[in-house]
Specification:
One of its GO terms (cellular component) is cytosol. GO terms for molecular function: 2-methylcitrate synthase activity; citrate synthase activity. With 374 residues, the chain is mainly alpha-helical. It has two domains: 212 residues, Citrate Synthase, domain 1 (Orthogonal Bundle), CATH 1.10.580; 98 residues, Cytochrome p450-Terp, domain 2 (Orthogonal Bundle). It contains 16 helices and three strands. Strands 1-2-3 form a three-stranded antiparallel β-sheet. The protein starts with 19 loop residues before the first strand and ends in a 25-residue tail after the last helix. It binds s-citryldethia Coenzyme A (SDX). The site of s-citryldethia Coenzyme A has 19 residues, from loops.
Length: 374
């Protein structure tokens, strides 16, 4: 392959962004100039969502207004609810999320307006409604009654309420909120680039987010948090972990939750999420997965010099919180809607059609032979 080809766009800078800065050399990530771990310590997810969408942190009045907007948009149409009821119960919830956002696009009263203001309003609607749709499916597939959202609950609190019918301890909700903050934005990752590519033909926000969800589903991207849990369940006990990881490395298997295209000496979000994983494990009085986590991590760093990415601690944390494994990546979705939407708006504001080239290596020019002579 020619050296001019950058497969996977490895190392290629394709545009500018003001939304986030990933600094692998100092293991740091900032959203609009604020360090992600600082935002986790001082803000809730709604404040960070506002920051990502509106470029500045909100004051009290702006935050109140933003929460009011979200709460106004949180319920689903009768049409979307009836579609959710008809979806096969064994469908992957990522496909349900994709379908739900697509239906929201059919129903949105501003679907043809891609002005910055209309796009912001639509982003808020998608952000508000997607957790409601996912929680409804969570209940429906278990044959349980859908639980309506409550106006007085936070974004994170409401998701627990709608899935489980109760809100857990404050520390658990905080850990969930932190995971949403850490998942909210990460520059030109594959799903965000997908959203920007779709937007670059001047297509609409619902289409771009639908495409981004499909991209996030893959196990090399967001789907990894689900795969991490499958791996930990396979390992089962800390006593099995060393043997398991040694065999996986011998077989040259890809170990889920490890490695990153940009960070080569550790994902800056991991230490924060690892700390909240620990707190959740203490509350749940279950350290099994923490022990497995540590053994696999130690071997991966020692033997391969490959570090965990953020999906490694989120997987077992969501498991301890009680979520079904196939709901981990949809949780990533409800947070990343903020980053995707900001990138869609940024792409619209300074658009250039994304259309790279390919080096052709197929058949030489040949003549078409009529069907009856082939
Ligand atoms: C996310 O981009 C983002 O920002 C994404 C994300 C976000 O917030 O949006 O951070 C979220 O998607 C995190 C990544 C989740 N994926 C996984 O955990 C899946 C497992 N990891 C990988 O397959 C891999 O590390 C990638 C896909 C994440 C990165 O792939 P690259 O950059 O294309 O690197 P590569 O696969 O070519 O690996 C380079 C080398 C290879 O060895 P050699 O052939 O050079 O000898 O490192 C090895 C790989 O085999 N390697 C691994 C490994 N990751 C890399 N070996 C075993 N297990 C792994 N996980």
């Amino acid at each position: 392959m020619s050296d001019d080809i950058k497969k996977g766009l490895l190392g290629i800078v394709v545009d500018e962004t003001e939304i986030s800065k990933v600094m692998p050399e100092i293991n740091s990530l900032t959203y609009r100039g604020y360090a992600a771990q600082d935002l986790c310590a001082r803000c809730d997810f709604e404040e960070v969502a506002y920051l990502i969408l509106n470029k500045e942190l909100p004051n009290k009045k702006q935050l109140k207004e933003f929460k009011k907007e979200l709460s106004k948009e949180i319920t689903l149409s009768k049409n979307l609810l009836s579609i959710l009821k008809k979806i096969p119960k064994n469908s992957h919830p990522m496909d349900v999320a994709r379908t739900a956002v697509s239906v929201m696009g059919l129903e949105d009263k501003e679907t043809k307006d891609s002005s910055p203001k209309a796009n912001l309003r639509k982003a808020i609607r998608i952000l508000a409604k997607t957790p409601t749709a996912l929680a409804a499916f969570y209940r429906l597939r278990k044959g349980k009654k859908i639980i309506a959202p409550k106006k007085n609950l936070t974004f994170s609190g409401n998701f627990f309420h709608m899935c489980f019918g109760k809100v857990p301890e404050k520390e658990i909700v905080k850990a969930f909120d932190v995971s949403l903050i850490l998942y909210a934005e990460h520059s030109f990752n594959v799903s965000t680039f997908t959203a920007r590519t779709i937007t670059s033909s001047l297509s609409d926000i619902h289409g771009a987010i639908t495409g981004a969800i499909a991209s996030l589903k893959g196990p090399l991207h967001g789907g990894a948090n689900e795969e991490v849990m499958h791996m930990m369940k396979k390992i089962k006990k800390p006593e099995n972990a060393l043997k398991w990881i040694t065999k996986a490395l011998k077989n040259k298997d890809v170990v889920m939750g490890f490695g990153h295209r940009v960070y080569k000496s550790g994902d800056s979000r991991v230490p924060t999420m690892r700390e909240y994983f620990k707190r959740v494990a203490i509350i749940k009085k279950d350290k099994t997965f923490e022990k497995i986590y540590d053994i696999v991590e130690k071997v991966m760093i020692k033997e391969k010099n490959i570090y965990p990415n953020v999906d490694y601690p989120t997987g077992p944390t969501y498991h301890l919180m009680g979520f079904d494994t196939d709901f981990f990546t949809p949780i990533f979705v409800i947070s990343r809607i903020t980053g995707w939407s900001a990138h869609i708006m940024e792409q619209h504001a300074a658009n250039k059609l994304i259309r790279p080239l390919a080096s052709y290596k197929g058949s030489k020019h040949r003549k078409v032979i009529q069907l009856n002579q082939r």
